[in-house]
Specification:
mainly alpha; 78% helix; 0% strand; 19 helices; 437 residues
Length: 437
């Protein structure tokens, strides 16, 4: 799990430093770039569904020592991923203003968002390619190459941000557009590294797409049955997060920079759990594929205990750092105070969030995608999302521009999904060998 944790740290730093450097320009630029990236959040969610299913199948077939089937599943994901990446590029090409105005109305903020979108839309194809390669390699325990590649891409992005956002080394100061160009170049370099590495035969994967003709019908149908509920889950989950973000912006649009700061700070703290999904995939998924059901069940419970204890420690650290992180951004003092309060609220709920995530990954490792859908995204749309929409539209007097109260209520309702998830986990219906016919 350690190499994955370090690679996830590089990825989180990639996003955090990106937003930090944009935030050093001014609050409207930070808000515009962050709202434009709401689309990437949904895109990322779809890939969690696609690559999550692929990783679960690859891990089990790897545990069953069927290397050729692993390669075919990988190639199938590549084709599907490139199709999704092209679709999102088209969406941002034809409807960028409509997407931005769904969240915000300020013309200055919208202008920064459009400048960013004009270039960042081209990064979706290399990002799609990279994510499929990354999660497929993780599923078989090949973590060092993604760690090196992600770290180099992060450093390139930081350097180009410094040059292009602020106009250093003789370059023009491009602001939001410079941040987009830096990210695009870094994504292209990262995708190129995977293309060359896999093409050189360094892993069990290949670029021999003709092998897809030998994909077993049973495996293809099983992949389809598993990918639909998990992709639906991730699409609904990330869409739910975007709707909650919209609700917060309706209550107080000026608070968007504080929301962005709290999101980025929390994601940086959660980097400690970056190897969690891979740990479950290897320690649980490969055991299921090998038919070692008791060991898989035991490993899942040990991961719950271990990561739960780590989460308590992270909560303490998060609360202690919450007053200092907002001072890294060029925003007014009132915005920093609000960001501190939001970070502390999210810190309180880190432990139930992590416990739910371990259970979710365990259900996914056993192919129980429908159960995972019910205890995650379906629950989200039944309780916290409607509550957020209601408070945004109704706006009783005590909630008018009182974002902290709304945020606390929504987060509390959100984390209650641990209860149904635990009941499904205890039932044990997810303990299955997907490689058996």
């Amino acid at each position: 799990m350690l190499p994955v944790l370090l690679q996830q740290m590089a990825n989180s730093l990639f996003n955090f430093i990106d937003n930090l450097m944009v935030g050093l320009v001014d609050a409207p630029t930070l808000a515009g770039v962050s709202v434009a990236n709401r689309v990437f959040l949904i895109f990322n969610g779809l890939f969690w569904g696609l690559t999550g299913t692929g990783a679960a199948l690859i891990a089990q077939f790897y545990g069953a020592d069927d290397r050729e089937e692993c390669d075919r599943i990988f190639l199938l994901q590549i084709l599907a991923g490139l199709f999704i990446g092209a679709a999102f590029t088209g969406l941002l090409t034809f409807f960028p203003r409509e997407i931005l105005t769904f969240f915000i109305k300020d013309p200055v903020t919208i202008g920064h968002g459009l400048a960013y979108t004009d270039l960042i839309r081209f990064s979706y194809l290399p990002a799609a390619f990279t994510m499929v390669c990354l999660f497929s390699l993780r599923a078989i325990g090949h973590n060092h190459m993604p760690l090196i590649t992600g770290s180099v891409a992060m450093l390139v992005n930081v350097f180009l941000n410094w040059v292009l956002i602020f106009g250093n080394l003789g370059a023009p100061a491009m602001g939001a557009r410079g941040a987009a160009l830096a990210t695009l170049i870094a994504r292209l370099l990262e995708a190129s590294a995977y293309l060359v590495w896999i093409g050189a035969g360094k892993t069990l994967f290949s670029w021999q797409f003709r092998l897809l003709g030998q994909l077993k019908a049973r495996v293809a149908l099983m992949a389809l049955r598993k990918v639909v509920p998990l992709t639906a889950n991730e699409f609904l989950y990330t869409s739910g997060l975007s709707v909650m973000f919209w609700s917060y912006s309706q209550i107080d649009e000026r608070a968007i920079p504080a929301l962005v700061i709290s999101e980025q700070a929390t994601q940086l703290l959660l980097v400690v759990f970056g190897g969690m999904g891979t740990g479950v995939s290897i320690l649980v998924g490969t055991r299921l594929g090998a038919g070692q059901f008791d060991q898989a069940r035991l490993n899942a419970r040990l991961l719950l205990v271990f990561l739960g204890l780590v989460a308590i420690g992270v909560t303490v650290i998060a609360i202690g750092l919450s007053p200092f992180v907002p001072h890294l951004f060029a925003v007014p003092d009132a915005m920093r105070h609000l960001a501190t309060q939001l970070i502390m609220i999210q810190a309180i709920f880190i432990t139930p969030w992590i416990l739910h995530a371990v259970i979710f990954f365990s259900l996914r490792a056993g192919g129980a995608m429908r159960a995972a859908l019910m205890v995650d995204a379906v629950y989200m749309w039944l309780l916290p999302v409607p509550a957020a929409i209601l408070m945004a539209l109704w706006r009783p007097p005590f909630l008018v521009q009182n974002l902290v109260v709304v945020f606390l209520i929504v987060q509390f309702l959100f984390q209650l999904h641990l209860l149904p998830a635990w009941l499904v986990f205890r039932r044990g219906t997810w303990v299955k060998n997907l490689t058996a016919s």
